[in-house]
Amino acid sequence: MAINGNHPDKPDNTPHKWRFVRIGGFDHVLINSGEDISSIPHLDQKLWAALACPTQGLEFDPATLAHMDKDKDGRIRASEVIEALNWTLSLIKNPDDLTRSNTQLPLSAINEESPEAKDILSCAREILKNTGKAQADAITPADVTDKVKIFANTRFNGDGIIPAMASEDPAVQQVIEDIMDCLGSEPDRSGLPGITKEKADRFFAEARQYSDWWRRTEGGNADILPFGEETEIAAGYFEAVRQKVDDYFTRCRLAAFDSTAALYMNPAKEQYEAVAKMPLSSTTDEIAAFPLAGIQARAGLPLRGAVNPAWERALSNFRDRVVIPLLKEDKDTLNLEEWRIIKDRFFHYEAWKADKSQSPLEKLGLQRIREILGSQSEILIAGLLEKDKALEATASSFDSLDRLIHYYCHLHILLNNFISFRDFYTPEKKAVFQAGTLYLDGRSCDLCIRVKDPAAHSVLAQMGGVYLAYCECTRKDSPERMMIAAAFTQGDSDNLLVGRNGIFYDRKHQDWDATIVKIIDHPISIRQAFWSPYKRLSRMIRTQIEKFAAERDKAVDKNAAAAATAAGQTPEPGKPPERKAFDVGKFAGIFAAIGLAVGAIGTAIASVITGLMGLLWWQVPLALIGLMLAVSGPSILMAALKLRQRNLSPLLDACGWAINSRARINISFGNTLTKTAMLPKGSSRLLQDPYAEKKSPLRLFILVLLLMLALAGLFILKMG
After folding, report:
1. What pLDDT, on the 0 to 100 scale, is given for residue 462?
2. How many angstroms separate the CA atoms of 688 and 671, rounded?
3. How many CB atoms lie within 10 A of CB 261?
4. Phi, psi of 45 (to 5 degrees)
């Protein structure tokens, strides 16, 4: 990718003439024309305002961000912006269209010469037709929002899935329902359940396999069904005793092999003793574990009489439903050879059963399956799927159409908040990272940024030099909570404290209760810096006075307690109470200290007055101004230097942006981001306050005292 600023697509290969505006301490590229937009992929990325931004926490169309975030990592990078631009420009006729405030995509703006654009245009017309807007000449983002609504009444939509309503034949509809019942369904774009080609092919393949499997038993195949239609029932009785009968004859053969083995093949005495101690019935598990009958060498299996009571019913069913029908005689005893004959007769049946594959189609029954196979359903369903597939190209363009509509309407806004910060520095506009406006302490703050974690955000945001108040925002009608960092760039911080409440209005004009939870303290304004020395002096004096008053109050309480204790003591008989002598030296020291303090204050005031009296009348105001500057000047200078260095970049970087420049917030621009309360034009104010504090002679007394101190100071100077 070329980033040297040249536009190789121009016939003469001349560089594009960019226009920049310097705002906030860096150059912003102006993106005002289609030619500017077409040249952005070739603009040196060192001149971009940002190289990446998050997809969350922005006041920007989320669908557009989702389309641009190709790797779904939650960030939009410069390469993804360029890819979106190139793709969009390849599908529209006039790049100048992107610079307009678009709310819809005109069909005439799509470049039909591009094969992809042609499919997108066809998809747009199909959607407008499906939504009852066949005559419309433009499509909006809202038109493609609800896919279910778009395809609600369509039989075919190119997604490779057909619902039952795709066929007008009730018989075919029922077959599609049977397929979904057996194999499950897939959601069609219409919102209805449907089947895919894979499900249809599997259904008919398994249906034929199931039918062929049953066909092997047809025509009187006695090898597989020795009992005819009753074979499955007979096989059940056979399987119920098979393991126990094998166990019985194996034990008898061991007894014939070794006569001493018979003793061990029958239950032991201890087993009978254990069983005898419990309540017994024919279903007791311990009894069922015993052999079917007593073990003897070469003995036959009795089918009635002396048999294990737990197996008496099973042996009776086996004899009546298997032995007698198969051996053609009533048998009370079954020998080993007869048992082997019976097992051999079930061999082919068991092999046939083993060939049966487990299929969910079995619940339909053989008759229904053969009815489906005998109809034209398979051919008709295949035809329906082919019709749906024929619209695949058009339907697959749905996502591309959705993407193009959002890019066409919103891409220019993103460019002015990514490649340049034009919206942020333009009056009456807000950048995508500005979440809304906070009203608190008689001010409105427009630079409010969504944050996830104030503690983590403040680490980097501290470097921005901006006074930030982190607020937790809540709404009574919603469990949602939102954290914002509000920048205060005008006024002072005297009343900005953790716990103070305000109201936050988001970009949708919804109001939130906002509470300050954390503060990053930095200078706010020159006015605050000017008054800060006097406020610090006032706080110091107030603190000292409060400290002195607290100490005196403590001393009074201590003396009162001591006096009360002394009053409770009984003096010795005939001895008068002890009285403390008046300490003249102590009080003399106190008065001397007071005199020194008054003298020092008077001397200082007298020096100032003497200096002023030695000036000409027009020099007095200048001297007073100089005095005030001497006090407030350092504070103002430090604040001015810090205010000029305020930087937006750390605030955004802490939110996941990759800011590529220093976006400064100087004093004049900062005053536009925070507005203080002002009376409307034409308003009047009544100056008579019925609750105003009454005038006290204390102020006059203090003034007279100060004048007397000043005169005393002058007198001391003259006498000296």
Report:
1. 93
2. 32
3. 17
4. -70, -15
Handedness of CA 304, 310, 313, 317 (dihedral sign): negative
Confidence grade of residue 642 (pLDDT, cut at 50, 70, 90): confident
Tell me the per-residue pLDDT of 56-112, one tens digit each, with 9 for 90 and over.
Answer: 999 999 999 999 999 999 999 999 999 999 999 999 999 999 999 899 999 999 999
How many CA atoms, within 13 angstroms, populate the side-chain half-sphere of residue 499?
0
Same domain for 72 and 1: yes
Q: Domain range holding 294?
A: 228-345
Which segments of 391-500 does DSSP mark as H helices, in order? 392-396, 398-415, 422-425, 454-461
Distant-in-sequence, close-in-space partners of 84: CB < 8 Å, separation ≥ 6 = 67, 68, 407, 411
Query: Do 151 and 268 fall within a single domain?
Result: no
Asked whether residue 14 is domain-assigned, the answer is yes
- Amino acid residing at 441: D
> Both 652 and 508 in a single domain?
yes
Task: Show contacts of 126-129: CB within 8 Å, 24+ apart.
Answer: 126/394, 127/398, 127/401
pLDDT in tens, 665-697: 888 888 899 999 888 888 887 777 777 666 666
SS (H, E, C) 185-249: CEECCCCCEEECHHHHHHHHHHHHHHHHHHHCCCCCCCCCCCCHHHHHHHHHHHHHHHHHHHHHH
Sheet containing strand 75-77, edge to edge, reads 75-77, 50-54, 658-659
Distance CA 165, CA 627 (A): 92
CA pair distance 648, 433, nearest whole angstrom? 11
What pLDDT is attached to residue 6? 38
Q: How far apart are CA 156 and CA 158, in angstroms?
A: 6
| β partners of residue 444 | 439, 675
Altogether, the residues listed in the chain come to a count of: 720
Q: State residue 614's pLDDT score.
A: 61
Token pair listed for 43: 């603009």
* Residue 578 binned pLDDT confidence (cut-offs 50, 70, 90): low
Least confident piece of the model among 12-16, 106-110, 401-405: 12-16
Residues 103 and 117 in one domain: yes
Each residue's pLDDT tens digit, 579-627 = 545 454 544 444 444 455 445 555 655 566 666 566 665 665 666 666 5
Report pLDDT for 587: 46
Q: Give ∠ CA 641-646-651 in degrees, rounded to 5.
A: 155
User: Do 451 and 408 share a structural domain?
Assistant: no
Angle of helix 170-183 versus helix 366-373 axis, rounded to 10 = 130
Sign of CA dihedral 288, 290, 294, 297: positive
Task: Identify whether residues 426 and 445 lie together within a single domain.
Answer: no
CB 645 within 8 A of CB 465: yes
Same domain, 9 and 31: yes
Q: Are 231 and 349 in contact (CB under 8 A)?
A: yes
Split into its structural domains, the chain has a count of 3
Enter the tokens of residue 389. Answer: 């597939």
- What's the whole-model pTM score? 0.63
Helix axes 347-354, 336-345, angle to 10 degrees: 40
- DSSP alpha helix (H) spans, 416-453: 422-425
Classified as helix, coil or strand, 470 is strand
d(CA 469, CA 489): 11
Q: Which pair of structure tokens corresponds to residue 94?
A: 């006039």
Q: Is the pLDDT of residue 40 over 90?
A: yes
Considering the domain boundaries, does residue 629 fall inside one?
A: no
335 and 399 share one domain? no
